[in-house]
Design goal:
single chain; mainly alpha; 6 helices; 74% helix
Length: 171
């Protein structure tokens, strides 16, 4: 069996997303250093392995950024998610980035629905246990319900689904 070296960027992408998903779950934040390291690695891999795909890499990066720009401007996405999807676009190219976006939307809907169903009851229990004399913002159940959901695991799920079930676009 011959190893297809052109698949190395996809392997690196999944490892990079896996690391960031774990960090996002633990800290609810991903550093710009980790995000831009992923971009630098993508550019280097493309230059070394597939220099003929540089235009597709740039178009993918633009598509990844553009697809999340409106949700970001509306306050539904964090800046890190926007930058991460741009980097994903640099690894995948424009067509696969569109597929990853579609699958991320589906995974996001399922994840947010499950999250709300699982933690709604937990939030009610927390409300009953709150000290009524406390005035800190974190003790307010309304604030707890609105805390950010780590979205990198959802993005990773969408990317992996797009790699396993490629959609064909005529762009």
């Amino acid at each position: 069996m011959e190893l297809d070296i052109t698949k190395l960027p996809l392997f690196v992408l999944v490892l990079w997303l896996g690391y960031m998903a774990l960090v996002d779950i633990k800290h609810h934040a991903v550093s710009n250093t980790v995000i831009f390291t992923g971009l630098i690695i993508s550019v280097l891999l493309h230059l070394m392995l597939m220099p003929e795909n540089l235009l597709n890499m740039l178009l993918g990066m633009t598509a990844g950024f553009g697809l999340l720009l409106i949700p970001f401007l509306m306050g539904h996405m964090g800046g890190a998610d926007l930058k991460i999807f741009a980097v994903i676009g640099s690894y995948l190219g424009v067509n696969a980035t569109l597929s990853a976006f579609i699958f991320t939307l589906i995974a996001g809907a399922v994840f947010v629905l499950a999250y709300k169903l699982l933690f709604k009851q937990h939030t009610v229990k927390m409300d009953l246990l709150q000290n009524s004399n406390s005035s800190t913002e974190t003790n307010n159940p309304a604030v707890i319900e609105k805390q950010a959901i780590p979205y990198v695991p959802v993005i990773m799920t969408g990317v992996i689904m797009s790699l396993l079930i490629p959609l064909r676009w005529s762009i």
